[in-house]
Specification:
The protein has an 8-stranded antiparallel barrel with strand order 1-2-3-4-5-6-7-8. The two termini are about 40 Å apart. With about 200 residues, the chain is mostly beta strands. It has a single domain, classed as Porin (Beta Barrel), CATH 2.40.160. It contains 1 helix and 8 strands. The longest helix is centred in the first third of the chain and has 19 residues.
């Protein structure tokens, strides 16, 4: 009877022992991670909604190199007397940099990154007024951008995670001006392949 209980106990503890030996928590460390999702930017008093796509290649369990591509858009209008003023703002960014992830926890993977690259800013303003020809102006500049931040992934399976949140301090430098804001994203992460080291 004692041997049967001992065997049953060892069988119950075997999965726990195997999990403890994995590199990268419950589901290990993927070779690459592709994430897509919704993204929001608050910069210089403007609220922009859009999307975010990133691809990370993991060098080892904790270090990866990530490429990040995002688009954010804002359409606003206001009235001044009889005039209607419409403004459109578009931010398109391409950044890359190192990401550090903590993969020893079973169900979650927190991460931090420093991304550097370029952001294209396109702004258009249109004024419509009865009896007056419509007037418009636009400006299109590209500047250096930085995103410093991190987030938290919920590990759903070996091939899938939920990006619960990613928050970045966003800096865009263009035409001698420095624009600062916050970017927040959430979405799905596809975990591709499996590292064996």
């Amino acid at each position: 009877m004692g041997k049967a209980v001992l065997r049953a106990g060892l069988l119950l503890l075997l999965p726990v022992a195997l999990l403890a030996q994995t590199n990268g928590g419950l589901y290990g460390t993927p070779k690459a991670e592709l994430s897509t999702g919704y993204s929001y930017v608050r910069i210089e008093g403007s609220n922009l909604h859009g999307w975010n796509v990133s691809l990370a290649g993991n060098v080892n369990r904790n270090l990866g190199i990530v490429g990040d591509f995002a688009g954010h858009y804002s359409d606003e209008s206001a009235t001044s007397g009889a005039a209607v003023i419409s403004s459109n703002l578009t931010l398109t960014s391409l950044m890359a940099g190192p990401r550090v992830s903590e993969r020893t926890m079973r169900w979650v993977t927190p991460f931090a990154h420093a991304l550097f690259g370029m952001t294209r800013v396109n702004a258009e303003v249109t004024v419509e007024q009865p009896g007056v020809p419509t007037s418009s102006a636009s400006n299109d500049v590209t500047g250096f951008s930085t995103a410093l931040g991190g987030g938290l992934d919920i590990n759903m399976s070996q091939g899938l995670a939920l990006r619960l949140f990613q928050v970045d301090y966003l800096i865009i430098r263009s035409d001698g001006f420095k624009h600062e804001g916050v970017r927040a994203s959430a979405g799905i992460v596809w975990r591709i392949g499996q590292r064996t080291d």
